[in-house]
């Protein structure tokens, strides 16, 4: 089945695709905050209509106890591989709202950029994936491979009910491989293939130094302050270089492979510009390039920290409680549970006598993922990118985490190719997130070719070489 | 003029006094938060009515550009000393609201305690002071001394416009000494005289590590995180004992006097019970008793700290900005501006290269205050307490700060006796603040005697011995 007429058809429909993406972005589908429950439901309804409209069958919600996933299938290619096409419809919270130059849920085009929460992560690429399937069905009345569209609703919260969804709908989700709209490009000027991603583990740390808030005039100088104690603990997690200073975490970590280090060096990467783009300060583990730190080495980050009086003016209290949300980006080979345990052990060991330590929000972690270079998914992607870019793609790893990849590998035995169009400069998870408009056309040219290339392989080849 | 009939009159009116205090407490006079502007205005109207009703003259607001003070006078005792009677009508914010067992602005009596925000700090003692003046005017048609009632509205925010009020109304506020309803008792079982208080200085620290929030998958492990940098700075302020670790601040500090150390040792003080009362952890400067740490030595406390994502669920960001509100309780002899400068210098010196440091909210500081033992205010208070308690009072210093004392000394040359009734266990500035109900009767017995004893001195004696 020839992809070229599908590409032509989709490029002619470019503005209609953009309109559909804009409507998708208007829906405030923030999964982490119950205040957005209505936006989540409206987004699911929007997707159910869309998938039915393009001709998928068995369109339904897959409920695992949290925000359900949206599913639809086209299974009319007997003998051809069955491919799960993955995207997610949830987005990060828009906070801090005050820093957005345009409203986060009113998509706005400025200077070749489509600004909106979720434009880059990952409604843009998800829309390209859905439109690709729609294009094949419209032009050929069918696809080169069997398609199971799976659109998750909890990617941004660490996919807490994904395992339950896979358990409940295991038969429905059987397939030979997955291609994901999440996990984007590493460079705007070089074709790249994602062959892996760091893992993720998280916890919330609660530090208590007393049973109630105290007046700093009455108690100041004579008792522990929960904020001081939290600060001392957080300060102990890194050394002066910004390298992780939790020995048990680093000692259990295998060294990066020589191939991984060669691949990391292959991508042209302007370290200074990468850091300058966010006005940041380069830091981290000595002995590794910045790109290696980002993809082959772990990172501990405090994502939020709070305690005491944070309103207007001043309040002279000694807080009794302080909290921090902490995540670990896991390097290849690191076990999430072991890493979280090492972090907890470290925190308990540095906490001063009498300071009460508690943890919450643990779970939903996933290890790093890796795709072998000779895998059919990598071969197919290589041929697509050679054709579109007229040169060989570079193998890269993601610093970010796509838990779905690890879970589908573990529970269903299938590998994932990340084939998103998003680029590193698009301010994902931050104010003024955007998607480069020209990525839409690039995606509409590449995705149909990928489905065509995947059809060349026999179903069993995807698993044999996994 | 005999105080005894006034005491009898006031004790008969005990329940009416309690009713008036309850009405005072219902008014939400939070000075630090503009959301309470209406409550502040209602409280001023309430006080203006009250002072006029008891027979004071020249009742008015004294406006210094912030929340005005409320003023009223009785000046019918020519030749007698003129005494400013000080109280404040503003209160701390009620946050965290969820921890209150009864609503903060619905006064509730339980087990001999009157619960409400401001009950202890300091509407309870302010009410006793006003009722004392009212009692003399009702019973004798006059007071033993000339009275200028001065009720501040910005005590809880460090008295930012108090200097301007004193500048604008300097003539009106001329007096020989001040007695203050703020600054309470040190013990429920021993009579005590406050002969001093620590000072206060503050700043807000803003730490920036980038120009925008970053995705921890894209940048984690390769850039500075503002929360890590803030934590490192805060952790550097104290050593493992909890003692201040800002050398420039401690080196400029004079050692406590031998008399101060003897006085600190004179009050029976159960250190373990004091700390256990709040479920706290004892800490601080080695070589000093807990009571000395609280009154004769400085303290640095972070009152609030925040940055990044603090909502429900998780958000994998690397924050670009983090903030902390910091106050210093100043020991006798420490200069507020010098102390804040030493703190700023220290913070800049420990901040890592590239980390941007900014400060806000500086100003309104005041040094520690001290009242000599032979001062007429101390002599008068000593005689009152000997009479009420049938034994000699102990000299104590406050760990908390009453900026008014320092400002009135500096600008108007007058000394202050703190004669509040509040006790250390009353959870001031914290949820479930309360006032021991039996302090009302004790106050109504003591305050009239104090006015009578002050009348024994010639006006010039208050200044000669200051």
TrEMBL record, chains A, B:
An example of a Gene Ontology BP annotation on this entry? proteolysis
Peptidase M20 dimerisation domain boundaries: 196-353
GO MF annotations for this entry?
Answer: metal ion binding; peptidase activity
Q: Which UniProt keywords apply?
A: Hydrolase, Metal-binding, Protease
Domain of life of the native organism = Bacteria
InterPro entries cross-referenced by the UniProt entry? Bact_exopeptidase_dim_dom, Cyt/Met_Dipeptidase, Peptidase_M20, Peptidase_M20_dimer
Q: Does the keyword tRNA-binding apply?
A: no
Name of this chain's protein:
M20/M25/M40 family metallo-hydrolase
